Amino acid sequence: MHKFLIRAASGIVYAAVIILALCYGGWAILLLAAAFAVIGIIELDRMQIGISDKTLPIFLLDIFGVLSLLGIATNRYSVILWFGLMIIRFIFARKIEKNSDGTLKIPSYGQVYLGIPFAFMIADPSGMLPLFVFAMLWLNDSGAYIVGSLAGRHKMSPKISPKKTWEGFFGGVAFTLVGVLILYFIRPQLFGYYLPRLAMSLLLAVSTCFFGTLGDLLESKIKRSCGFKDSGNWIPGHGGLLDRIDSFLIAYPVAFLLMFFCYEF
Questions:
Q1: How far apart are the first and last CA of the chain?
Q2: Whole-angstrom Cα distance, residue 108 to residue 101?
Q3: What pTM was estimated for this model as a whole?
Q4: What does the pLDDT average to over 182-194?
Q5: Where is average pLDDT lowest: 11-25, 62-76, 100-114, 167-181?
Q6: Amino acid 4: pLDDT
Q7: Across-strand partners of 239?
Q8: In sequence order, which residues have a C-beta less than 8 Å from that of residue 260 and are 6 or more positions away?
């Protein structure tokens, strides 16, 4: 019971921070994106290369690199800065260690993995779309947990995530679609901003559930390959920040591009 209360309390605080920042907009979204990106890259590097005197330069370059990527939403020269940092990172990585086949042991995708989603989040100063995506992901997680616990029989990916089932997946999709329909017809204004047209809202719901699940499985695979159960311990009862935002990292860029190409955004 004590662990449940801790988990519930930390989950409420986590959700409240996100909601307040996205509703406030402007600099609050920028701070939220920067904080999540930096914490996420630290967790990822800790799992993949560990913390030591040798890897400290990689940690620092990854932090500066992911922050420079956040700037692409407002400053095109940020990409040039990012490329420069990547070149320096490559030089440091070559000096540290290689696999037996000559490939680098230090992965370099982390900056893009975390930087692009949060750069897209900054690109929406209203905060409406990221808030909508977070809300759908929370609905999906709740539905998947409830249905999976009650009726889960067929494992989705037993080697990567043994608890995920196809019944839970479709239950999450159903919960999300129902939630979006209720929100659309009862409260079409989400914190002062109108939701997209109904067809687009439902498309976003299905897309978010599908790519959110892929994001969850991807992060689980990264953790298993590194020998970790949780990415960290920032959020009591929930693990690390990456454990909470893994779905968002894949689902949100897809939602952003769908809105950009298919809707007036």
A1: 45
A2: 17
A3: 0.90
A4: 65
A5: 100-114
A6: 64
A7: 235
A8: none
